[in-house]
Design goal:
Layout (H helix, E strand, L loop, with lengths): L1 E7 L4 E5 L7 E6 L5 E7 L5 E8 L5 E4 L5 E7 L2 E7 L5 E5 L7 E9 L2 E8 L2 H7 L9 E6 L4 E6 L11 E2 L9 E2 L8 E3 L5 E4 L2 E8 L4 E8 L5 E4 L3 E10 L2 E8 L2 E7 L5 E5 L6 E2 L5 E4 L10 E5 L5 E6 L9 E2 L5 E5 L2 E5 L5 E6 L11 E2 L4 E6 L2 E6 L14 H5 L3 E2 L1
Parallel strand pairs: 17-36
Antiparallel strand pairs: 1-35, 2-3, 3-4, 4-5, 6-7, 7-8, 8-9, 10-11, 11-12, 12-13, 14-15, 16-18, 17-18, 18-19, 19-20, 19-21, 21-22, 22-23, 23-24, 25-26, 26-27, 27-28, 29-30, 30-31, 31-32, 33-34, 34-35
């Protein structure tokens, strides 16, 4: 196992994608300052083909289409845009979806016939910088054609939230600790992890209280925009596509450490006492490294089995973890605690590479041709040569969702 290249970006990397298992890599990162968004096309040797810079919002957003067009969300004086960057670095099609003052593209995905966007309010700092006045806009989910025509727009009302693990103490409680009473969030944003997923004719959109971390996932009909159902307020965690119209919704924090499976009707069909970065292959096997917010870690690599049971894999040290990838023989690869680890189909662990590294901003793992594994660590993209096979198929995040970073299962 060798480290074949280390590629340094202008700032912290937010996403790495490839339109083909042979590369090249489309890297979206911060630029010279936190607001700036930079997109770079680079090959696996580290050679830069082109680089584009945009005025950002502090959270770069991009999605890669099958034909190699990188769609980038950014702002200008006239509003918010989605711009297509062609494989040669030139500007392609651009749309300007209608939005109100203070609205930002919180997340978006590419559909076969257009876009789905989760809108949220810009931070108060950005609104002051732009002199955008008025009340904070309500979050919403909307669908658009490739030309930017809005097919539907559904407002999201998070309402009052609560969770038994959120405690408060003060004069009103006699300085005794007690569960916090339900509260209405002052600011609502898209969820930090997998905020927008599309599977079949269903959309899963996560919105959360930016200060408390308590939120809900809303399941919408892709054709009409109608809200089918929503989860109860919970500490938000990782999510995944489990199959056509089905999703895995994780919850972690304030004592919660679970994953639920939700069907096409929005009802919960299973629940496991585990939370992590999960994979779902074409055989329906669900597995991945746990992400327990406890140090020293008690996490394991787990397989989520039938009847809400867990199958234990090896123990894992550390906490910060890349989203994993899986090869066609069922071996899972991911970065954790300064190591590139592989867990085979028999749940045996193999250390492929290790170095003294404690960086906490870690991107997902991509599995490319010839066993090449790509992981981003803070502002670097690392490429390894490994004995792994080709990328597995399956709902999540194998196949298209893994390479192109577009969480859509048609």
């Amino acid at each position: 196992m060798t480290l074949s290249s280390r590629i340094t970006m202008p700032g912290q990397v937010w996403s790495v994608a490839a339109s083909d298992p042979s590369g090249p890599l489309y890297v979206t990162s911060h630029g010279a300052h936190p607001r700036e968004t930079v997109v770079t096309l680079v090959d696996l040797s580290g050679a830069v083909a082109w680089r584009r810079t945009y005025d950002g919002t502090g959270r770069p957003r991009s999605r890669l289409s099958p034909d190699g067009v990188l769609w980038v969300a950014y702002s200008d004086q006239d509003g918010r845009l989605l711009e297509g960057v062609l494989p040669d670095g030139s500007t392609g099609p651009t749309i300007r979806p209608e939005c109100g003052p203070g609205e930002e593209v919180g997340a978006f995905v590419l559909l076969d016939d257009g876009f789905c966007i989760a809108w949220a309010g810009a931070s108060r700092l950005l609104q002051r910088e732009r002199s955008e006045q008025g009340s904070v806009p309500r979050p919403r989910v909307a669908r658009y054609t490739w030309e930017g025509v809005c097919l539907w727009s559904t407002p999201i009302e998070l309402g009052a939230v609560s969770h038994p693990g959120v405690l408060e103490m003060g004069v009103d409680t006699g300085w005794a600790m007690r569960p916090r009473r339900p509260w209405v969030p002052e600011e609502v944003d898209v969820d930090h992890c997998e905020p927008l997923l599309v599977s079949g004719d269903r959309v899963a959109a996560g919105f959360t209280d930016t200060r408390g971390g308590i939120g809900r996932t809303y399941f919408l009909d892709l054709d009409s925009g109608e809200i089918v159902s929503a989860t109860s307020p919970v500490p938000m965690g990782r999510k995944a596509i489990a199959g056509p119209g089905e999703f895995l919704i994780g919850s972690q924090g304030y004592g919660a450490f679970t994953t639920g499976r939700y069907g096409r009707d929005g009802g919960e069909t299973a629940r496991w006492a585990s939370h992590g970065a999960l994979l779902v292959n074409d055989k329906g096997i669900i597995c991945g490294p746990e992400l327990e917010n406890v140090l020293p870690s008690k996490s394991r690599f787990r397989r989520l089995a039938s009847n809400n049971t867990l199958k234990d894999g090896p123990s894992l040290t550390g906490y910060y973890t890349s989203f994993p990838a899986m090869d066609h023989e069922g071996t899972t690869v991911f970065w954790r605690d300064g190591k590139l680890l592989a867990i085979d189909a028999d749940l045996a662990a193999h250390e492929l590479f290790a170095m003294d590294d404690d960086r906490k901003v870690i991107g997902r793992a991509l599995l490319l041709d010839d066993g090449r594994v790509v992981v981003s660590l803070d502002s670097e993209v690392l490429a390894f040569r490994s004995p792994l096979g080709r990328l597995a198929e399956g709902p999540w995040p194998c196949g298209d969702a893994n390479l192109r970073g577009n969480p859509v299962l048609s």
